[in-house]
Design goal:
Elements: E1 2-5, H1 21-28, E2 31-34, H2 37-47, E3 57-60, H3 71-78, E4 83-86, H4 99-107, E5 112-114, H5 120-128, E6 135-140, H6 145-162, E7 165-169, H7 175-185, E8 191-196, E9 205-210, H8 211-216, E10 226-231
Parallel strand pairs: 1-4, 1-5, 2-3, 2-4, 6-7
Antiparallel strand pairs: 7-10, 8-9, 8-10
Length: 232
């Protein structure tokens, strides 16, 4: 089996936000594909503090990984060893390279089992007030200033033309600069939803305002996980 396990979006997320089956799986699985070892160990401890960390066998699966780099793990899976797959936050395979091993598993007749959990962009979408029937998730916008400006304006044009909600994110330490660019390049009447620290009972921010209103009072988003949505 390859279990696709959720990670928390905030370390302060209440444990009862999650299905009890996650702990059961972690207690019975020792092998994991992880995007970040330190984060994965914290997530495992969050769900199953009794799990003995030394018995864990973690295989790094990041944007540079290829299936050829994971031959030891593949051999174990073919021999019948169960694996879990953990992202840094939320559900795996969205905004991370977990699909590499999911695709391999399908090709090698290994059962893939997705487990319910939070997805930051889905939670942001349903809380935004925007069109939830038709939307696009773009992941990360370009870093280059001119390419980013062009992409921001392209997303705004898509909203105006189709009504489809446009969803994207940024590396947390660049959030403030992204918000600055959004308020600079978008029309003042365009609506923007910012969803930050989702699932944190104390600091969660989810608000939809026009660009004109955001300009009056920009939130501090430096190093805070956030999702941005443009919509109607």
């Amino acid at each position: 089996m390859l279990y696709l396990l959720p990670a928390y979006l905030s370390e302060n997320s209440p444990i009862d936000y999650f299905a009890p089956t996650i702990k059961d799986i972690i207690m019975n699985v020792d092998h994991y594909f992880v995007e970040n070892e330190k984060t994965a160990r914290k997530v495992i401890k969050f769900f199953a503090p009794e799990k003995k960390q030394p018995q864990l066998k973690l295989f790094l699966l990041d944007k540079y990984s290829e299936t050829a780099d994971l031959k030891e793990a593949q051999k174990l899976m073919k021999e019948g060893v169960d694996f879990g797959l953990l992202s840094e936050a939320g559900l795996p395979c969205i905004g991370d390279p977990g699909n590499i091993m999911v695709g391999w598993s399908h090709s090698n007749h290994i059962k893939v089992i997705p487990i319910n959990g939070p997805s930051s962009f889905v939670l942001a979408l349903i809380a935004s007030g925007f069109n939830g029937q038709q939307f696009s998730f773009h992941g990360y916008l370009p870093i280059d200033k001119e390419k980013k400006k062009k992409e921001i304006q392209n997303l705004e044009n898509l909203v105006n033309k189709t009504g489809f909600t446009q969803i994207f994110m940024e590396t947390p330490y660049r959030n403030n600069q992204l918000l600055e660019d959004l308020t600079k390049f978008l029309n003042p009447n365009t609506k923007l939803c910012i969803a930050a620290n989702i699932n944190d009972p104390e600091t969660e921010l989810i608000q939809t305002k026009t660009i004109a209103d955001w300009k009056k009072n920009k939130p501090e988003l430096h190093k805070i996980p956030a999702v941005f949505l443009i919509g109607k």
